[in-house]
Amino acid sequence: TRQAQELLEAGVPGLHLYTLNKSPATRRVMQNLQIVLR
């Protein structure tokens, strides 16, 4: 989550997450980023 947050704050236009069949972890990252995306 921290790296994604730093990238978004640096102005990257988007993120691509590879789930590798770990969708709960990906969902958790996205839930954490909602703070940043608002």
UniProtKB/TrEMBL annotation:
Keywords attached to this entry: FAD, Flavoprotein, Oxidoreductase
Entry's Gene Ontology BP terms: methionine metabolic process; tetrahydrofolate interconversion
Gene3D superfamilies: 3.20.20.220
UniProt xrefs under InterPro entries: FAD-linked_oxidoreductase-like (IPR029041), Mehydrof_redctse-like (IPR003171)
Names of the cofactor(s): FAD
Pathway assigned to this chain's UniProt record: One-carbon metabolism; tetrahydrofolate interconversion
One family name in Pfam for this protein: MTHFR
GO molecular function: methylenetetrahydrofolate reductase [NAD(P)H] activity
Sequence similarity: Belongs to the methylenetetrahydrofolate reductase family.
Name this protein carries in UniProt: Methylenetetrahydrofolate reductase
Organism listed in the record: Meiothermus ruber
